Amino acid sequence: MTGTDTETDTETDTDGRVVVVGGGLAGIAAALHCADAGRPVTLYESRPRLGGMAFSFTRDGLSVDNGQHVFLRCCDAYRGLLDRLGVTERTTLQRRLDIAVLRPDGRSARLRRTAGVPAPAHLTPALLRYGLLSPVDRARAARAAVALRLLDAADPRLDARTLGDFLRHHGQNRATVDALWGVLATATLNLPPDDASLALAAKVFRTGVLDRAAAGDVGHAVAPLGDLHSIAARRALTAAGVDVRLAHHVTAVRAGAGPLAVTVRVRGTETTVHPASVVLAVPPRVACRTAPELAAVPAGRCARLGTSPIVNVHVHYDRRVTDLPFAAAVDSPVQWFFDRTESSGLAARRPGAQYLAVTVSAADDIIDTTSPVLQQRFVAELARLLPGAEQADVLDVFVTRERHATFRQSRGSGALRPTADSGLPGVWLAGAWTDTGWPDTMEGAVRSGITAARAVSEPTAAETMGNLA
User: Fold this and answer.
1) CA 412, 413, 414, 419 torsion: positive or negative?
2) How confident is the model at residue 464 (pLDDT cuts 50, 70, 90)?
3) Across the beta sheet with 307-317, what order do the strands follow?
4) What is the pLDDT of residue 13?
5) Could you give the CA distance from residue 187 to residue 387 in angstroms, rounded to a whole number?
6) Residue 57: enclosing H or E segment and its boundaries?
7) Is 114 helix (H, G, I), strand (E, B) or coil?
């Protein structure tokens, strides 16, 4: 048999099985909740690991996260998944929101909520002391925050506007957008304010910052993401009875004429299975390629969702250059950096050294810049932000890129996001790109998986009538 030949076999469903295609957070959540509902589940993942876009890999013996994936206290679904996987203790969550914001000229500020003060007044003292803006700009920012809090993120009219347009309409100048609003918006929406959907921005700022005082407290993993989202997830899925099949590539899903059919390829052999239901928990472009019949139903509009890239620059120093666990930066190509010394294993391998990971969202302008250029640029920028970095020796520096990190959360994107119901019989959709009401985040991914699982588990009208008879 040549390398392009395939053998074909067929398996027919007899037990109401659910097939979940994709082992990211959406697929993991969908599989667990389907299993909880008593459905037999098979999860197919084309890669040899779980975790989707939130994963780790090994480089020179150290664990490297592909990106710096944070969550907030308001991310109830994702935090619930961490509990289910038994890894909550391998994350940390601030007791109260506290973000250091640095500038290359040495000036800095903190976005810190005041304990015991209800929203939205919990951020007033921090805004009044925010020295990166003039007193006049701080007052204008407070008024814009009040206006933003009055928006209804579910109003479809907001999706036709950008956050930048709204901010300018409410008196925000470029300095205020760059030094305040853009710090959070660009990181969460993976687009600059002038491009980002106002509807999604309203969701971010209202749910994450303005509506509840504690909602915006920042959490992140203190262990490699692979330990959380792959190793622990596979253990939990197996315990729930899910049949997890890694390195299995689903090449086609056929619905409509005839029984539901899923074609799976592994090591040159193709098998067609006929489950009762399918959850497509893959990116929109993959979903449309795998299930071409989506083009004939409204959900097929998701094919027009673009993507936005993220670039990460990883720097190992021979000594500690900052005591900050993470920080944002303004007036610098460095948007955020995170201390990954402990989670990577560098602390144990080389005591006293430090590993900082720089994250650049909305990285369209640099996604194709060569690694040597990016390495030189960001090492120099970190030295401008952190005086200790200028005296330190760089042990290693490398670049990772996610060209399709998120769907493009621009104005008009809301109309392209389908619900869990694909419109094809027996086929459901999951992923942070579906219509969760949230931006493309780990929280949105988990919520989408839960929603799809609930839809799969609901009895059909025919089944309900049959039970009543």
Assistant:
1) positive
2) very low
3) 108-112, 98-102, 326-329, 336-339, 354-360, 307-317, 394-407
4) 53
5) 25
6) strand 56-59
7) coil
- CB neighbour list of residue 151: distance below 8 Å, 6 or more residues apart: 158, 198, 202, 206
pLDDT at 259 over 60: yes
Q: How many Å apart are CA 74 and CA 211, to the nearest integer?
A: 10
Measured distance CA(148)–CA(187) in Å, rounded:
18
DSSP 56-76: EEEETTEEEESS--EEETT-H
Sequence letter at residue 285: R
| Cα–Cα distance, 252 to 271 (Å, whole number) | 11
The two structure tokens encoding residue 287: 């979903």
Q: Note the maximum CA span of the chain.
A: 80
Q: Please name each of the domains of the chain with its CATH number.
A: 7-54+225-305+410-468 (3.50.50.60), 56-92+219-223+306-407 (3.90.660.10), 116-213 (1.10.405)
Cα separation of 26 and 212, whole Å?
26
Instruction: Give the containing element (helix H, strand E) for 146.
Output: helix 135-149
pLDDT reading at 349 higher than 60 = yes
- Output the CA–CA distances (angstroms, integers) from residue 358 to 6, 207, 322, in the order listed: 44, 26, 13
* pLDDT, tens digit, 9 for 90 and up, residues 133-144: 999 999 999 999
Lookup result for tokens 């509506």: 211
Residue written as token pair 């395939």: 6
